[in-house]
Amino acid sequence: MRSLKMERGRTFVLRLETGEVLHEVLERFSRENGIKNAMVTVVGGIGEGSRLTVGPEIPYDEGIVPIIITLDAPHELTASGTIFPDEKGDPMVHIHGSAGREGRAVTGCLRAGVVAWLVLEVVLVELIGEGAVRKEDTEAGFKILEL
């Protein structure tokens, strides 16, 4: 295990408009407001066409291939995640959540493209500190948080 101490900074409340892509809005908002690190909580509706990564294909001896599903109708969502900079200093969201409709649910990573529908609310709490960076992991094939 690795750890890093950070302090709470500013707190923001965002309401996304229908059609906005969650991770794109959060990364743009972070850049515009000088937010390097944050934790986020999300609740509300996501629309048809939203995409979630729901695991890797198996076996993954030859590398990790994500399984991505596309929602065919609006769903209710609850999610939480983090924002930390990549090697270039750009904010990068990592967020997982569960989306449900008609008694069925799907859980996964929302970075593939979750689209706001009607009401999608975010509480973003800035974290103050240095040392957390998302770095490319050649074995995994994506960026992983390094402390």
Task: Report on the architecture of this protein.
Helices cover 7% and strands 55% of the residues. The chain has 147 residues and is mainly β. It has one domain (7-146): 60s Ribosomal Protein L30, Chain: A, CATH 3.30.1330. The radius of gyration is 16 Å and the shape is globular. The model has no long low-confidence stretch (mean pLDDT 96).
Question: Keywords for this structure?
Answer:
single chain, 147 residues, mainly beta, 60s Ribosomal Protein L30, Chain: A, six-stranded antiparallel β-sheet, two-stranded antiparallel sheet, 1 helix, globular
User: What's the CATH architecture?
Assistant: 2-Layer Sandwich
The overall strand count is 10
Number of continuous helical runs? 1
| Beta strand % | over 45%
Output the CATH homologous superfamily.
Hypothetical protein, similar to alpha- acetolactate decarboxylase, domain 2
Tell me the radius of gyration.
Answer: 16 Å
Shape: globular
Question: N-to-C terminal Cα separation, in Å?
Answer: 10 Å
Query: Which structural category fits the helices and strands?
Result: mainly beta
Taking pLDDT < 50 over at least 5 consecutive residues as the criterion, the unreliable ranges are none
